[in-house]
UniProtKB/TrEMBL annotation:
Protein name: C-type lectin domain-containing protein
Organism: Patiria miniata
Domain of life: Eukaryota
Gene3D superfamilies, sorted: Mannose-Binding Protein A, subunit A (3.10.100.10)
UniProt cross-references to Pfam families, sorted A to Z: Lectin_C (PF00059)
Organism classification: Eukaryota, Metazoa, Echinodermata, Eleutherozoa, Asterozoa
SUPFAM superfamilies per record: C-type lectin-like
First and last residue of the signal peptide: 1-22
Keywords: Disulfide bond, Signal
Residue ranges constituting the C-type lectin domain according to the UniProt record: 41-154
Keyword Glycoprotein set for record: no
Amino acid sequence: MLPKRLVVGLISLCLMIRCTGGNERCEASIRGACPPAWIQWGDKCYKQGSEDLPWAEAKQECIKMRSVLVMPQSQEETDFLQKNLIHKFWINCNDLQVEGTWVCQDGTTDVEYRNWRVEPAEPNNGAGGEDCAVADETGWNDVSCEFHAPTICKRPAPQLHF
Ligand SMILES: [Ca+2]
Ligand SMILES: [Ca+2]
C-alpha cells in the first residue's frame, strides 16, 4: 500500500495539472490500470479469449467478461493488438442484415474506419455466405460467421473521478 499522504499528494497534483491545463471544464480523473490479465492501450483494456469461436459466440464471450468484441478504429490500434495479442482475430463488423452493407461498431458506436484486404479484394462474400469479418496483417476479410477465430475483447480502462 502507498502511504496515504503520497496518494493524497498525487491526487492533488493531478487535480492541479488538470485545472491549470487550460481546460474549460476542470474535470478531475485518474486513469486506472486494467484488471489483471488485460493489457492496456491508451484508455482501453484488451484480453484474448480462451479459444477460437464462431463470431456470435465470440461476441457472447466478451459480454460475459463485461466487455465487447473488439472493433479497431485505426491501424495503430490494430498494430498494437497484433503485436501484443494475436495477428488474426474477429472484429465486430458484419453484413448480416443487408448483404454488402457492413455495420462495424465499437460497442454501440458506429465505426467508419475500414481496412479491407486489397489483394485479393475483400469483402467478396465468398461462396455467397461470408457475413462476418476477421482482421489479420493483410487487412480485413469477410468469412463465414461459423468460422472459428480468436477473440479479442475490449473495455474501457477504469476511471476514478473526483
Ligand atoms: Ca456478406
Ligand atoms: Ca472473403
